[in-house]
């Protein structure tokens, strides 16, 4: 169907990233609360903070809310919260406002450890994959408007490590007014390790001979959320508070300070310490996983939003490079796979 638009959708626990070709991309934080809401008590600010109310399966959900639900539970990919957040990101992207984006095909991803399973003959976690795809096909309605509505016709899922590889070897260029793929044959033949540092986990995926090498790929439960929690504990120890919103913690990480009950606390060293601790754990895990194939590795490529935040220290690792677009690399690869490689 030529009138169906393909969109790569990295629907993560901490953020939703979508990509639709030639720089058409958008992201939001995974903030959603159960129930309808106008603006929350404290208001909100930032590029993805506007509250939007959606209806699905007879329930109301509000995205962009400061009082958001936890998204780190195991069944998050199968949940109405994930479904609503994906729709919210699609609604907020400027490029989806056009009439050509009424019918959509989504290409989704799952981390290496979730995508594969020895319980199924195919080697894939069929229950989780099909469950996530069916979940996102359930209709969602933006209750504020009858315009800019779209239908998700179909979903497919790829492992995120391979998605990063597709983005690494394929680029789109405009030639004589036409969009054409350019394949990097040299990169396609090399052995490349993708280190995807996300919110809750870090994925290390080795691709050689155009396949994921499972013996040299793995997951560690360490990501940017670990930095946030270490910093939160540090603040609690210094003050008499026992609760700080995710919004305020995010601002504290950016500004390297926080105002608690009128007292401004400098967080520069605490943040640096938490970051160093995370980097040390990821480096140790990566070295251990790749010990037997070090001599065969051609490239180590950093992807994921956290790799941007930690790039100054991460770039000290031998043989490591930062990908062209770390935050959107998986979503971009999902899109490219469906368009040119599927």
Automatic annotation (TrEMBL):
Coiled coil: none annotated. SUPFAM superfamilies: Actin-like ATPase domain. It comes from the Bacteria. CDD domains: ASKHA_NBD_ParM_R1-like. InterPro entries: ASKHA_NBD_ParM_R1-like, ATPase_NBD, MreB-like_C, ParM/StbA_N. Residues 37-167 form the Plasmid segregation protein ParM/StbA N-terminal domain. Residues 195-315 form the Actin homologue MreB-like C-terminal domain. This is ParM/StbA family protein. It comes from Shewanella inventionis.
